[in-house]
Each structure stands twice: as C-alpha cells, then as structure tokens.
Hints:
Layout: H1 2-15, E1 26-30, E2 36-39, E3 46-50, E4 53-57, H2 62-68, E5 74-78, E6 92-97, E7 100-101, E8 107-112, E9 115-116, E10 138-144, E11 156-164, E12 167-175, E13 181-183, E14 188-191, E15 194-197, E16 203-207, E17 211-218, E18 228-232
Parallel strand pairs: 1-10
Antiparallel strand pairs: 1-2, 3-4, 5-6, 6-7, 8-9, 8-10, 11-12, 12-13, 12-16, 14-15, 14-17, 17-18
Amino acid sequence: MRRALATSVIALAAFAPPAAAVPRLHQLVVFRDGNARVSQPSMAQTTVKVGHRRCSVAGATPLAALIRSGIGPLSLRDYGSCGKRAVNSSSLFVAAIGPDRNRGSDGWVYKTGNVLGTAGAADPTGPLGRGRLHPGARVTWFWCHVTARDNGCPHTLAATLTAGAGELAVHVRQYDDRGKGAPARGATVHAGTATAATGSAGTARLALPAGCYRVWAEQPTRIRSFPTVAEVK
C-alpha cells in the first residue's frame, strides 16, 4: 500500500505545474573607481537592519533588489520610522555601498531605465511615484557628483546593437537625470577583447569573426552601460 501511495505521489509530482519563476530585475552597480557589478536579483520584499531596528523593505523597489543582490556591505540611514511595516521604510537612505561612502552632497543615486529616481529607493509608491518596478526593469546605481557640465549627475550610457555578417554596429547614447538623450561621441565600445570609438553620431563599427560577444560602452566622466550579448554570424 505504501509503495502504491509513493508511486502515485511521484506520478502527480511529475505532472504538477512548475513553480512560478521568481520575479527579477537587471541591476548594474558602478563604483567610484569604475568597477561594476551586474546581477539579476529577486524583487521580493525583504528586511534589513538599520541601527538597532529590523526594517521591512517593500518588494519591487530598487532597495529591496539591492539588498537581495548581496552587493556587499550596505550602510543605511533612516530619516523616517522604519519597522515591521514596509510602508514606513520610504525614507531609508543609502549612505554607502561597499567602500564608497556618501560625502556632503556627493553620494549614491539610482536610475530606472534612463531616468533618475525622484523617490527614496524603498518608497512603495515607486521610483517616480507612479508605481513599483516591473520584472525585467533595469536599475543602475552609481556615485553622483553634481557638475554644471552635466547639469546634474554624470550622464549614463546606453548601447543598442545591430549585428550583421562579420560586423557589429553599436549605437551609444548618453542620458541626463531626466532621461533626455543625445549621441555619445568618443565613447569606447567593448565587444569581447575588441574595442572601437564612437563617432559624432554615437556609432562604432567593429569587424568581428562569427560568435557571441559581451558588449558594453564606457567613457571618462560618464557611467558605463549595461552589458548586452550580441551574436555575429
């Protein structure tokens, strides 16, 4: 009887629907020295210790994903009254990630897509006050030193790819805090070990043998792009 029951359980398990995939986002953390960490952390609600308190952080927020990514030691400050209710964590502030600590008006900020977040990273109303993050969203954390040149934080780079036979065209744009974009002239594009500089239209072309390449762009005084995989045939 037990053997028959066990066989039935195994059979049912074989036909059971797969567990739902954990919602994740794409995260890029760029440190002051230019080093970067890319990950796809869970968006689930979590908790974090702030001082002597354990605080809930709402899911689908940049801070929840940052905590779950295990990026390294985080230093948080609470300018509100965080606690068991996630709604009370909207005033949590990221004071340090790893070795890079905020100094004066310089410090860590985040973008969702190409737009600088206007709300706290744990605010349940979302980065722009219009709802929380969706699975697959791109969040970039970077160190901001405001300059007149950029009229705000350093511009972030984004690269789009067009692959052809033996060639890869990479189009790079730079984005300000509000998400206004322009071609990024003079950016360095990396495709595996190959590199090329973008021209006045923000485009670089690389002659490459067939294969898959990890592609990203960087430029002094700007924040590097997310990496993208391209297949050249």
